[in-house]
Design goal:
The protein is an alpha/beta fold and 394 residues long. It has a single domain, classed as FAD/NAD(P)-binding domain, CATH 3.50.50.60. The protein is built from 13 helices and 18 strands. The protein has a seven-stranded mixed sheet with strand order 5-4-13-14-15-12-16, with helices on both faces. Helix 1 packs parallel to helix 5, helix 2 crosses helix 10 and helix 10 packs antiparallel against helix 11. It binds flavin-adenine dinucleotide. Flavin-adenine dinucleotide binds next to helix 1, strand 3 and helix 10.
Length: 394
């Protein structure tokens, strides 16, 4: 094994997961995080059964359970009339089929437990305030230069540095990510403040023309996580400024008053302009590769971006171990295995954005077809939730 550590740029959910996966395979790693502290934003995140399986392999699933909420169903409600369209039952049959549960969790609890697991591994070194600005590939190593001038020589480099990854810019060089024209607002409020209490135990998505709103509880059910997204008409018209709160209210004006009323749960001062990228086939070069949003950023409509980053980490560690630290070979094998699955997530997420946001005849057809389904039949994410085969010895 190489004496030098594997360098990981980025200590988000993806960077920490691959650090843990590699350490569990006996590799030394050094995580270089740009922010002054390792952390996550204060909102919720959904985890499918496919990633529960990976978190179990990484030895953190049990520690996450006390922080998790397990919704009893994923419900789609038409936002225009507030009538249920369909539901996917997440109970016994779902668990039987996929062997693992669907859960939701506060991002800080998820990131925090993975971080704690990393801290317990002596093979992992974590350094904050170390934003990668450049790297250089040498015959047997990679040298990374950070914003503060520090330099690190490693056996290989994994760019887990997110949507705006400088590592990607050097390897793939495909410009800025694609602006989807969708804008998201978030809000977390005490559950006691929720007025319509008919969906407290589920993960519910109100879907309507150019909009959707997601709601689920976190932290023992004490707080409600709210996510509202609009597809901007101003963006479609080519206007430079789009996605402000006024536009959100304008798009929600057609929604049922009970749905419109939910906008009170949101913070107005911050929004997220959503991006993704067309799938590529060249995110590995020699001793350098990408992972998570740096490799295959996706819209969140299948709630799988972080799920994919964690799956990436497990697969990457396996390939490194299997290739006997021939990084060039390991990274190509990792890319090959991850390429189509992550591309399918990116492209299916775009489709679900359309599916949620349709109007007129398309809305009528969507609702009729969805209303005919049985809550226990596997839906279009079956291929995803079945998960991936990994080495059980990790
Ligand atoms: C509204 C919304 C809802 C979502 N919901 C879900 C969901 O329910 N389920 C799900 O699975 N996914 C969801 N996602 C997607 C998910 O948040 C991302 O896919 C996931 O965070 C990607 O993890 P990552 O570690 O690859 O990147 P990031 O989380 O972006 O982490 C990158 C890290 O790298 C650091 N960094 C950046 N530049 C540098 C540099 N130059 N050098 C060193 N460090 C650097 C950053 O500070 C950060 O810590 C959602 C996304 C959005 C926008």
């Amino acid at each position: 094994m190489n004496e030098r550590p594997i360098l990981i740029a980025g200590g988000g959910i993806g960077g920490l997961s691959v650090a843990l996966a590699l350490a569990r395979k006996g590799r030394r790693v050094r995580v270089l995080e740009k922010a002054p502290e390792f952390g996550e934003i204060g909102y919720g995140i959904q985890m499918g059964p496919n990633v529960s399986r990976m978190l179990d392999r990484l030895g953190v699933l049990k520690a996450l359970e006390p922080h998790s909420v397990f919704p009893d169903a994923l419900i789609l409600v038409d936002a225009l009339d507030n009538r249920e369209v369909t539901r996917i039952a997440l109970g016994g049959k779902f668990r039987e089929r996929y062997q693992y549960r669907y859960f939701v969790i506060h991002r800080r609890d998820l990131h925090g437990e993975i971080l704690e697991a990393c801290r317990r591994h002596e093979e992992i070194t974590l350094e904050a305030s170390r934003g990668l600005v450049a790297f250089e590939e040498r015959a047997n190593s990679v040298v990374v230069r950070c914003e503060n001038g520090a330099e690190y020589e490693g056996a290989a480099l994994i760019g887990a540095d997110g949507l705006w990854s400088p590592t990607r810019a050097a390897i793939v060089n495909d410009g800025a990510p694609r602006v989807a024209g969708h804008v998201t607002y978030r809000g977390v409020v005490p559950t006691a403040e929720i007025i319509d209490r008919s969906h407290l135990d589920s993960m519910t998505i109100w879907i309507g023309p150019d909009l959707h709103l997601v709601q689920y509880r976190l932290r023992g059910g004490t707080v409600m996580n709210n996510v509202a997204t609009v597809s901007s008409r101003r963006f479609r018209r080519g206007e430079k400024s789009f996605g402000g709160w006024d536009e959100l209210e304008e798009v929600f004006a057609r929604a049922d008053p009970r749905v419109r009323d939910m906008l009170r749960y949101f913070a107005r001062d911050r929004n997220w302009v959503l991006h993704d990228r067309d799938p590529v086939t060249n995110w590995s070069r020699g001793r350098v590769t990408l992972l998570g949003d740096a490799a295959h950023p996706t819209l969140q409509y299948l709630a799988q971006g972080a799920n994919m980053a964690i799956e990436d980490g497990v697969v990457l560690a396996e390939k490194v171990a299997a290739a006997g630290d021939d990084y060039g070979r390991a990274f190509l094998a990792y890319q090959r295995e991850r390429m189509n699955r992550t591309a399918r997530v990116v492209l299916s997420s775009r489709f679900f954005g359309e599916y949620f946001h349709v109007d007129g005849g398309a809305r009528e057809l969507r609702n009729e077809l969805a209303r005919g389904r049985d809550p226990d039949t596997p839906w279009e994410a079956d291929w995803l939730y079945r998960g991936i085969e990994v080495d059980s010895r990790l």
